[in-house]
């Protein structure tokens, strides 16, 4: 089994420590037996970003040839963040097959435990929503874990350079007015590191980005909105506006359910 799977010093997506009671409630609600290897890694850390960020892919998809990126694994939560207990809602939202448990994903693709033909030690599958395609990644979760590996790409090196860049407000405004979600993410990362100096600008920018015509940019903005919210950057009035925008947009409404369900 892969040891030390979790990224250090990155608490994004990390839930409250896992307990036997949480496991019991989750299995009863999902009506399945969760893989022992999955429970074991959640006892180390209950969800979040992982170091081993890629998995071999035998069957090409519409967006990948020989591997897929797996940067996070959902935990199990009973509060506003529910992890795999959001599966039922997300299955309905994205018209996914029933009797699966989602353990990673962002809307266009999901990695899931496939309980359609068995209730214990299920295979791990990739669901490509856009192509309506399902691919088996591993016969069980333990094999899936052993198939993960750490991949450093040229893109990641460029990303590191970009987030260390010193941005000006005019440059950020120009970026937010464009259609490149990667550049927008770079700019939001910079603002995240300088949030206390730019609170009002961050709030105004998020509201604007959440109403962008491009879905991928609205999704990026929704993820960062939660990040700023969790770090206490956003005012109550701004959070209320964000939740209202999310709930009125059926393509990104699920972010309101995942991140702001108690508001």
Automatic annotation (TrEMBL):
Coiled-coil annotated spans? none
Q: Which residues form the Knr4/Smi1-like domain?
A: 17-147
Q: Which InterPro entries match?
A: Knr4/Smi1-like_dom, Knr4/Smi1-like_sf
| The name this protein goes by in its record | Knr4/Smi1-like domain-containing protein
Gene source species: Salipaludibacillus keqinensis
């Amino acid at each position: 089994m892969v040891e030390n799977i979790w990224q250090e010093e990155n608490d994004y997506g990390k839930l409250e420590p896992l307990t036997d009671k949480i496991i019991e409630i989750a299995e009863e609600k999902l009506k399945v037996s969760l893989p022992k290897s999955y429970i074991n890694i959640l006892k180390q850390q209950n969800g979040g970003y992982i170091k081993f960020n890629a998995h071999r892919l035998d069957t090409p998809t519409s967006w990948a040839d020989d591997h897929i990126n797996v940067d996070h694994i959902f935990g199990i939560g009973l509060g506003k963040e529910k992890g795999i207990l959001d599966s039922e809602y997300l299955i309905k939202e994205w018209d996914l097959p029933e009797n699966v448990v989602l353990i990673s994903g962002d809307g266009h693709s999901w990695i899931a435990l496939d309980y359609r033909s068995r209730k214990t030690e299920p295979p791990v599958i990739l669901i490509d929503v856009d192509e309506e395609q399902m691919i088996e990644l591993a016969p069980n979760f333990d094999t899936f874990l052993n198939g993960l590996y750490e991949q450093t790409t040229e893109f990641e090196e460029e990303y590191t350079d970009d987030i260390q860049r010193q941005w000006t407000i005019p440059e950020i405004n120009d970026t937010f007015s464009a259609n490149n979600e990667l550049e927008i993410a770079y700019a939001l990362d910079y603002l995240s590191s300088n949030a206390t100096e730019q609170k009002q600008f961050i709030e105004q920018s998020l509201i604007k980005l959440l109403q962008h015509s491009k879905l991928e940019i609205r999704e990026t903005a929704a993820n960062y909105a939660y990040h700023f919210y969790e770090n206490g950057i956003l005012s109550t009035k701004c959070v209320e506006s964000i939740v209202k925008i999310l709930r009125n947009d059926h393509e990104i409404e699920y972010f309101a359910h995942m991140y702001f369900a108690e508001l």
